[in-house]
Amino acid sequence: MSTSMMSPVPIEDQAKLLDEVLNVVKVQAHLMKKCLENNKLMDGLKHCSNMLAELRTSALTPKNYYELYMSIFDAMRHLTAFLTEAHTAGRHHLADLYELVQYAGNIVPRLYLMITVGAAYMSMPDAPVREIMRDMMEMTRGVQHPIRGLFLRYYLSSMTRDHLPVGEGSGPEGNVFESINFILTNFTEMNKLWVRLQHQGHSRDREKREAERKELRILVGTNLVRLSQLDGVDLKIYQKDILPGILDQVVSCRDVIAQEYLMEVITQVFPDDFHLRTLQPFLSATAQLHPKVNVKQIIISLIDRLAAFAAREAEGEEPNDAKKQREENIRRIAQERKRKLQGLQPEEEEEEEEEQVEEQEPEQNTEESAGDTAAAEEEQQVPSQDEEAIDNTPLGGEQEATDNVEAEDAKADETETKEEKAVETGDLVQAEEEDAIKKVRGIPEDVELFVVFWGQIVELVKARPDLSIQDLTALLVSLINLSLSCYPEKIDYVDQILAYAKDKVLEFSDSPDLHSKATEANLLGLLLAPIQHYSSALYLLALANYQPLLALQPYPTRQQAAYAVVNSILKNATTIDIPEDVHGVLELCDVLLRDQKDAPVTAAPQPTYGGGRQKHAELSLEQEEYIEKQGLLARMVHLFQSESEDTQFLLLSAARKQFGDGGDRIRYTFPPLIVSAVKLARRYKFQEEQDEIWEKKTSALFRFIHQVISALYHKCEVADNCLHLFLLAGQSADECGFEEIAYEFFVEAFTIYEESISESRAQFQAITCIIGALQQTRVFSVDNYDTLITKAALHSSKLLKKPDQCRGVYLSSHLWWATERGITESDLPEGEKATLFRDGKRALECLQKALKIADSCMDPVTNVELFVEILNRYIYYFEKGNEAVTVKYLNGLIDLINTNLSNMDNPDQHPPTSNSSSLVEHEGLVSDYVRRHFRATLLHLQTRKEQSARTDFQGPKYDELDLGDI
């Protein structure tokens, strides 16, 4: 054919040329089928040879050549089926045809026909498979053109894949080892042709040829897939016969594209069990690859696959009890390391000391009891010896990374030597022992997966000084995931990786690659991996190198890591019960607690954030994110919990010390501290009978609360919050019986009211809260209480708006009429009932003053609304037995309201102005609400009057009430 020696034609002519050759194939295939249907084999072979001759072309691109090949491949299936049927029927013997087709004129059609007949012959019983395989392999060497040779060998692989021998016999039918050799030889030759393809054509077309080579890579990789699917291949055969041959070819080809692709294929197609036992040769081969090969990605692929394998195995093999035991082991190991880093005594030693103290008394008894005690002590020594042995292992102590590597490499070399001896000797007993080796999370105990990978990565870094920090950190991310998946209890492994990463970050501190997005993402993944795998973020405190590595990261990375720590603690409800842990966790969250030098301008807190009056819609995205993160920190405070009251105080003090440097952030973090401290004060109160010095401790706690609220008040514009917190603290001090402290807290609340609350609505709400808090107090002497409530009443009467004044004054009346707390008044002891501060006349004076203020309001609707509210207060005192409040006041006020109702205009033009400080917003017209309220009040009085008339009622007399027509 004229196109056989041509180079690829221009792109614009490729479609036309492809159509031409496909038409030829279509015609010749049709003629071949007709001849075969008429049992004219020789004519059919002639047409088939004409069709196959189109594969001699060099004018097509690899992509178009592949389309031509597939068209011919589909047509050849008819010939294969005919040959098989003819041989079975006895019309044509395949051995004769195998010799016949070799007389074809051109080598490409000749070899395709030979492979077709040979593959069909291999499928027959008693066929000389070994000889056919050797002959076809030898003959295919005749085509050395890269593209034609690749597709020819791909055809050879495709046609023979179902007929390769898998037995172990030595007869002409062949065996599995010859099949392996056949596939490996084909793979080697195809790889050579694939590599040679890069040298075809002009150097200016190199990028184009590389793209074409990548399109053809699946042809070469198919051989490795065939090997992985071959029956009869076990670990021993893979170790001895398959992997060495593959790796030898991969390393020797010295081609970047081929090496990267083939190493990836090896990783993906062979079983995980095989990889676990052949890590050393595989990783050693990676170190011998071309310097431009992306070794990082090869190792990462293998690590990730094995980590995923371990995770799947763990899900399938671990019962719930085993998971709980593993989690307990992790907790215990992390606790030991953490306490050691914090300079604390190990928990085991503390428990042993307590046991020894408890055992001293039995030791002083009789000889018999002494003997029993000695036996018990001897039993207790067994676990302590185990713990001592654990502490002496590399897991129990901190060693330098290099020391670990040397020891682990020596052990790995010893293991490898033993495995090689077992393979060489072929010892059946050894093989059985290997089968019986216990597996943990799918990993055999004698395969130190992390040790091998760690050693290889360290050696790789030494051998490849050009390895970028980006690639190195990517490797470490995969390695830490492997460690956490396969060896979750080996906390030392994780710390070892973090230490190495920290050293490399310092080493590359001046490199631009360190600040690339990929490197930062890798380092963030390195920091997030332990948080995502461990059930408690406190385990991070057992990693000596976590905080130092975190501190070296840029602001966004530190922020995301801190955010993940807080989320983990909240999600798992992790209780933090010692001050050292509070300090450690908040150090990890430092970027959320304090201003950072490298923080962007938008990340700095602004005084308006959360100021209480700024509408949510006015907040920027950065402000909302900032407030959200501070809110999470505030929630975390409530997880600082200890069963010991004294330790709880230390927890809060440690948190206050960390939060205190946060500037405006304390508006979010101090309030939960104060609430937790108030809860602690109640706990101290409950311990007054068990703890002789509880008063001193509680006084110190209240001083702490006072300092925290004062700091919040002076540093942030949150006067409203601080006033409420002082009131809360004052009520808590009242419950605990500390009069002077409670008085001081209320004085501070009044001070904030006078100094910082100026907006009228805020003043009304604040004075309402002050009145409510004071009314519930019981600890004050008469003088102190009178001073405070007089001040509250005075402030109420000086509010800006008349409705506010009126409501404030009638609410103040309750300050002169103390009520019981939580139980009915009839259940109170006589002594306690007598201590309730009540002055009915002063309460009445407040109501009368409120009535005068209400009468002075210009708006008729507001006027009547306030009258109705005051009437309800009169009724309250009347029913509570305030002798100063008599029926005449109720009758007079009812008449006054009726008079004003008749004169009240229906529409209220300006309800927001006249009624702006009402604590309850009303639906619809205010005038309608006032009428309904008044009518409900009269109905209540009518019901009371009827009940009083029907029964011998001992309470207030209702018969003199004049309710008129309701």
TrEMBL record:
InterPro entries: Vps35 (IPR005378), Vps35_C (IPR042491). One of its GO terms (cellular component) is retromer, cargo-selective complex. Residues 408-424 have a biased composition (Basic and acidic residues). Keywords: Membrane, Protein transport, Transport. Residues 338-429 are annotated as: Disordered. Residues 346-390 have a biased composition (Acidic residues). It is a peripheral membrane protein. Gene3D superfamilies: Vacuolar protein sorting-associated protein 35, helical subcomplex Vps35-C (1.25.40.660). GO terms for biological process: intracellular protein transport; retrograde transport, endosome to Golgi. Belongs to the VPS35 family. Plays a role in vesicular protein sorting. This is Vacuolar protein sorting-associated protein 35. It comes from Mucor circinelloides f. lusitanicus.
